[in-house]
Hints:
CATH architecture of the largest domain: 2-Layer Sandwich
CATH topology of the largest domain: Heat Shock Protein 90
Largest sheet: 6 strands, antiparallel
Distance between the termini: 60 Å
Number of helices: 15
Oligomer: single chain
Strand content: 15-25%
Structural class: alpha+beta
Radius of gyration: 34 Å
CATH superfamily of the largest domain: Histidine kinase-like ATPase, C-terminal domain
Low-confidence stretches: 1-37, 44-78, 457-461
CATH class of the largest domain: Alpha Beta
Bound molecules: adenosine-5'-diphosphate
Order of helices and strands: EHHHHHEEHHHEEEHHEHEEHEEHHEEH
Helix content: 40-55%
Strand order of the largest sheet: 1-4-5-6-2-3
Number of domains: 4
Mean pLDDT: 81
Shape: elongated
Amino acid sequence: MQLDQGPTSNARRPEGEGxxxxxxxxxxxxxVAAAGGYFVDSIAxxxxxxGGSAAVAFCATMFFTSSDQDDSQPQSAAKASAAAAAARRAxxxxxxxxxxxxxxxxxxxAMEVRSTERTALLHAITDAVLLVDSHGETRFANKxxxxxxxxxxxxxxxxxxxxxxxxxxxxxVQAVIEAGGxxxxxxxxxxxxxxxxxxxxxxxxxxxxxxxxxAIIVRDVRSEREADRMKSEFVAKASHELRTPLAxxxxxxxxxxxxxxxxxxxxREFAGxxxxxxxxxxxxxxxxxxxxxxxxxLARANLExxxxxxLCLRCVxxxxxxxxxxxxxxxxxxxxxxxxxxxxxxxxxxxxxNLLSNAxxxxxxxxxxxxxxxxxxxxxxxxxxxxxNGLGIPEHAIPRxxxxxxxxxxxxxxxxxxxxxxxxCRNIVEAMHGGxxxxxxxxGVGSRFWFAIPQDHAARKAA
Length: 463
Ligand code: ADP
């Protein structure tokens, strides 16, 4: 979708502020670099309004201070005072012309240093920055412009850069120049390159400049678009997963409410379905919230010294009832060594219980499930493995297993689930504890899910 957004208000600086004499002198000698004082002014105000870029904000600060307050630029200030001293010395000398020449030489060198610094700063910006006239001819383009718009985009006096941009950018340049500074344009569109790179473009008038020039900033927004796409995909999958239990809840509740079920056993059975679907819904919502909190960085691990020998035993005890119901044998193999690591105990318990309940769920009645606690001295971590001799996982499914809402086809018939448990485990282990999680599996033979949690200094001392 191409969206050419209309004018927005231009936040201009107060009259007189930021108008050092220096840029004008430099403008006469080195036009592009010297115009930078005003040029960057238009970049900064525009981009910060449009969402902000730390680099550009930094760049703006540099330019304001360099053009407004010479004493904030120690090198330039030193050169300027050297120029003044040289001028005084020269004036004192017999030849008045010699003094003038020396002063203007030093001043010219100071201007050169300053304009080199400004140009370097513009090249360091990771967005494409262009200065164009009312015909769309390039006056200046930074290095990023050639990366984004093609190597000839930086050729001064050509229209290569503007032609690589969507046509509405040229229209915006003309509009802001005609409006004389009261307008700024923000455009979201795609480049004319083969990848149709999505970009956000800002067009600003370069204010107070004798020529009518516009500053264009082009940002590659591919990663933002990808993040948006992933968010939408998550919302679509989540809605789908929520709709399924909701539909069955509604159907069973309607049957009971209409009084159509006369048989007491059937009524009890339907109530049981409602109960289990409600449970699945609340697990689904809890997991979505937990994953959201971890991924947004809101969740923090409450680290304490966790004894995994002890924790695994407790988790197996908790699952014993379900295992007995399915006639599944469970055992724990603990290590002789101290299996202690700095971890969040409730979260570790959640991971072990999730792996254990999966092992029980995806193992036929009468199977075997075991938990093994070990330490990896080389990696200095505690390693927990949960093994089963159940269904196993096909090779093609393994890379997707820890993704969101993924369930192995055919397993749905075997047991109900959310497809979020393993993703939550991975988030807890890897994002919150700096550990690692993985699986080895063979269809018809069984699976071994494992995770490793790094031991901390205190735990090593205790071992
Ligand atoms: P679910 O709630 O569906 O079990 P998980 O994220 O925990 O969600 O697991 C994702 C999928 O991985 C499951 O749907 C199942 O297909 C597969 N899976 C997980 N653990 C096992 C296991 N021990 N044996 C076989 N398949 C498993």
